[in-house]
Design goal:
- Two copies of one chain form a homodimer.
- In chain A, α1 crosses α4 and α4 crosses α6.
- By secondary structure, the first copy, chain A, is α+β, with helices and mostly antiparallel strands.
- Chain A contains six helices and 15 strands.
- The longest helix of chain A has 22 residues.
- In chain A, strands 3, 4, 5, 7, 8, 9, 10, 11, 12, 13 and 14 form an eleven-stranded mixed sheet that branches. The first copy, chain A, has a three-stranded antiparallel sheet with strand order 2-1-6, with no helix packed on it.
- In chain A, a hairpin with a 6-residue loop joins β1 and β2.
- At the A-B interface, β1, β2, β8, α2 and β13 of A face β1, β2, β8, α2 and β13 of B.
- β15 of chain A pairs parallel with β2 of chain B, so a sheet runs across the interface.
């Protein structure tokens, strides 16, 4: 990595930003030159996990899902983490090197660009890979927090069109995550009360035997949908193989409904799981956030988002789709 | 307004979102059908302020800058504000009607789409209109906070291409603004110490006799620039006529530099001024935020922005432009 990424802290506003200049070099990969396609394994760093055909060799062809370190990582690898590192910038030390890990899940050997077009088996393998890499980093012990997310489409921030998702892990918990995690109203668990009879709610979208989809009460974008496991658990990485399989059903269902109602929008998918080793009083979920609107000066200036659709209306449209 | 806008509060994350369905009906106005062009005054609500040629009549042609209520306001007018209104949603009352004001500054009678192409006199009139409407609402007494902002270009959230800016005012102060406003490090004022010798700083961009432009220490986007008045004042609405004139000089200079370095990006401009009647320990500024990047799942999931350019590098490029 040519330039060391840094955390910056603005003492005038309290804002923390990660400056990661090497990410500006990442290619906009489309079409046959795609570094994620089978046969192009040499164009990524060596894999850290792969689901492979019997007899195939690491970093060669013959795989379903491959996990590799992000060549254009936003953070310097946690392998270099110095003893006694103070993780986030503070008022006393407003600049600081940024350590962590950044991995990419290549979700298909062929050049598929739409996640919900993957086979059910293929998507299940990808989701198990998310879980297994989260488990790996939880057990490693050096990170305090990691998040799995997917950006599909350029207006959702994807620079490579080949189906993929990402994991970024940090040796500290982001301040906003701490804030949300500490939010008092998870006790008794509202998700657990709500998933008992989800169809009674005007924001219900759909359900499977293990998951419920609803539009959240304060969605950021029209059509934003939350997928909640019926089984109480603080962390996604504790999900069973059956839950991973079942998650694909509800995820594909939700994505199909969103595509139908909102004309195939780009979207972000965010796995909201408790920070490592801080599981009390939390219930994991997934946000599916179609990028159906653009944030403007007001939102950036005040932090108050404006959404043009009531979640009850979005849910009604999604239910009918 | 067909549907009453509402504040929604998510008890699971603490997120507040304004749901404003009528905004979905706002037109994407381009070209000759533009409702903001001179001669089309009947297509907007009646003006609340206008800088007019002698002898011209309100809501007819013959003006330089016109201020009108936003036909697609995000909030229900403060005229309807009930006695004892609890302004923001809370855990006890997670839904609530959204009151406030939303006004549009039409910054040119002709169909100009690029703010920095306006004449200096024209832009000065627009900026004085910002100040005067903020003064009006401060003196009105019903609002606690108002923000002036500009969205230029569709990826910055503009739905009308004709040069315009906006003001949204609320009967409460947005939580994030309170947080930033309370930030302890404004005392002694860092801006005041910094503007004494601004060229010594590696993040200096340019200056006029009344303003300094710098890249902030933790910018959200490559090229983000902060314009700071040398004269200490908590609020933009106290700016003098001379400051309004001088502000155009530095604003046009900064916009020209950003256009040159970042190839005419869409941008947001945000006037950061103290909430009404809470001026202690604040120094107003303007954020110019070129939309040189797209936010993705990680940013939405954690609140931690990733910027691909160090502010020192951005300032170096902008200084050279």
């Amino acid at each position: 990595m040519a330039q060391v990424p840094e955390w910056r802290f603005d003492p005038l506003t309290g804002r923390r930003v990660l400056i990661s200049p090497d990410r500006a070099d990442r290619p906009r990969a489309v079409g046959p030159a795609c570094p994620f396609c089978e046969g192009h394994e040499a164009e990524t760093p060596p894999e850290v996990l792969a689901y492979r055909d019997p007899g195939s060799v690491p970093n060669g062809p013959g795989w379903q899902v491959r996990v590799v370190p992000n060549r254009y990582a936003a953070v310097r690898t946690v392998e270099d983490l110095p003893e006694g590192y103070l993780p986030a910038p503070t008022d006393e030390a407003p600049w600081g090197r940024a350590y962590g890990i950044a991995e990419v899940f290549v979700e298909s050997p062929t050049h598929e660009t739409v996640f919900r077009n993957l086979s059910h088996a293929q998507a299940t393998t990808a989701i198990r890979a998310w879980r297994n890499r989260l488990r790996y980093w939880r057990d490693d012990g050096r990170l305090m927090f990691a998040q799995v997310f997917k950006n599909e489409g350029s207006s959702a921030g994807a620079s490579v069109e080949h189906c993929h998702s990402q994991l970024i892990g940090l040796p500290f918990v982001p301040p906003r995550v701490i804030e949300e995690f500490r939010f008092p109203d998870m006790h008794p668990c509202r998700f657990c009360s709500w998933t008992v009879n989800p169809r009674l709610d005007s924001r219900f979208v759909s359900e499977t035997d293990m998951f419920v989809a609803q539009c959240p009460v304060a969605p950021r974008f029209p059509g934003e949908t939350r997928i909640i496991p019926k089984q109480h658990s603080a962390t996604f990485e504790n999900a069973s193989d059956d839950e991973a399989t079942n998650l694909v059903h509800i995820l594909f269902d939700v994505l199909r409904r969103i595509d139908h109602v909102f004309s195939n929008p780009d979207y972000n998918l965010i796995v909201r799981s408790a920070p490592f080793r801080h599981e009390a009083n939390f219930h994991w979920w997934i946000d599916v956030m179609p990028r159906t609107a653009t944030t403007a000066g007001w939102e950036w200036g005040t932090g108050l988002l404006i959404n043009t659709m009531f979640p009850e209306r979005a849910a009604e449209l999604l239910r009918a789709a």
